[in-house]
Write a structure and sequence with these properties.
The chain has 438 residues and is an alpha/beta fold. 35% of the residues lie in helices and 17% in strands. The strands form five sheets. It has a three-stranded mixed beta sheet with strand order 2-1-15. A three-stranded mixed beta sheet has the order 3-4-5. Strands 6-7-8 form a three-stranded mixed beta sheet, sandwiched between helices. Helix 2 packs antiparallel against helix 16, helix 4 packs across helix 17 and helix 16 runs antiparallel to helix 17. It is globular.
């Protein structure tokens, strides 16, 4: 079996809306000028690096924007240009939501369990409902359609509906799930991390809200046919959430039998780690980073734990870290220690994804990882599999259709509707399948 990385292709309306409560990078860059062209090219270059490390790489196309259904539900009607013009005059704050390109963060697209873990031996997907944020909630329907188009072979794949649109089932996708295993083809332990239980949405003295619920994670595990003996639920620490850890992938990352985690990631962390260790009978390598080595604040600022941890063709592991880690003395010292010590991590690559970082997502946010057999991988549409040829065509497409700069005020420009529409029409021709752009 192999791990396949599905990266979200950054869309032409990438802008800094500052829409994500609890995400410090998003909030601190609110209404700055963005560069959609640079953002998409940065993401494309990261895919190239991962593919060259020997990890199969695929893409999720961006979602069409503006999200006209959302605007019409707010009471606006007419042709797209007229709708945008009316919204800009009467309720301009809605344009940032309707034009959000946040589907690029594929780690939030769905929770996925590989066939080695499930009762029926198929890969199971549950698209995230993302109900905690309006600009992300609008993604769920299109994500479900996209997943059902890509993973249509029912012998291998099951794509469930998103969870109910209820507070107690708030679901943020694989950003709060880690799969640990001895080998990819063996049954793994699926660790689900939640921020709160039940209908408790109160913030009280807390700085930021918790997004994922335990009920959502438990229902997904049941849907996917996971064994209770190989499933673990852990709660995010409130200290981490208040420091800006809105998802678990901002404070921990795992791959195969390596679990890299900050000491303040979970409630009763010692007990959580003991339970994981017992399931692996000593074969799990738990690498704990202390707050003294890397404070929560520096972990959030650099997104060190949002690095990708990859098994390469050589059989060893490589960290793919955001460039911010190279410029942080504390993060650099942690990386140097990990590379020096006896563990499977032997190399580190730094990637420039600053446009995504400024909007609140690092390298791991941009990808959804899926363990697959060769037959499962062969059932995917070839149009979405990264190749040097596809890379070149997408690069030309981005340079042709994406604006170099985009401001909040630019979202009111009716011409942007036509520009984006033309870009998506051309992308449909490149991929040879318009149904990949629901």
């Amino acid at each position: 079996m192999m791990e396949v990385n599905f990266d979200g292709l950054l869309g032409p309306t990438h802008h800094f809306g500052g829409l994500s409560a609890g995400n410090l990078a998003s909030l601190s860059h609110r209404h700055h000028r963005s560069s959609p062209r640079r953002a998409a090219l940065e993401g494309l270059d990261k895919m190239k690096l991962v593919a060259e490390l020997g990890v199969p790489q695929a893409i999720f196309p961006p979602q069409r924007r503006p999200h006209l259904q959302f605007l019409r539900e707010q009471g606006f009607s007419g042709e797209p240009r007229l709708v945008v013009d009316a919204v800009a005059r009467r309720r301009p704050e809605l344009l940032s939501v309707a034009y959000s390109a946040s589907s690029m963060w594929a780690a939030n697209a769905a929770t996925v369990s590989p066939s080695a873990d499930t009762l029926d031996g198929r890969i199971h997907w549950t698209p995230a409902n993302l109900i905690s944020m309006p600009h992300r909630k609008i993604e769920a329907e299109q994500t479900t359609k996209l997943l059902r188009e890509i993973f249509s072979e029912e012998r291998f794949f099951v794509v469930h509906d998103p969870l109910p649109d209820q507070a107690k089932y708030s679901d943020e996708g694989a950003a709060n799930q880690t799969r640990l295993c001895r080998q990819y083809e063996q049954r793994g332990v699926e660790l689900f991390v939640y921020g709160r239980s039940g209908d408790d949405t109160t913030v009280s003295e807390n700085r930021f809200p918790a997004r994922q619920t335990r009920q959502a994670s438990e229902l997904i595990a049941k849907r996917h046919g996971l064994s209770p003996d190989w499933t673990l639920f852990a709660q995010q620490s409130r200290r981490a959430i208040n420091a800006g850890v809105f998802h678990n992938d901002v404070i921990a990352v795992g791959n195969a039998s390596v679990h890299l985690v900050h000491e303040h990631a979970f409630v009763d962390q010692a007990a959580v780690l003991r339970q994981l260790e017992r399931r692996f009978a000593g074969d799990l390598r738990t690498l704990v980073i202390t707050d003294q080595e890397l404070s929560l604040e520096e972990a959030v600022r650099t997104y060190f734990f949002n690095s990708q941890l990859l098994t390469t063709t050589a059989g060893s592991m490589t960290l793919v870290c955001p460039l911010e880690c190279e410029r942080s003395q504390a993060a650099q010292q942690v990386i140097e220690r990990l590379l020096r010590e006896d563990n499977p991590i032997v190399d580190c690559k730094f990637v420039d994804v600053r446009q995504s970082m400024h909007n609140g997502g690092g390298p791991a946010c941009l990808r959804l990882r899926v363990v697959m057999t060769p037959d499962e991988f062969a059932a995917l549409p070839r149009a979405i599999i990264w190749t040097p040829q596809l890379h070149q065509r997408l690069q030309v497409w981005i340079e042709t259709h994406y604006r170099d700069e985009l401001s909040i005020a630019d979202l009111a420009d009716p011409d942007l509707v036509d520009e984006v529409g033309n870009a998506f029409d051309e992308l449909g021709r490149i991929l040879g399948n318009k149904r990949l752009l629901p």
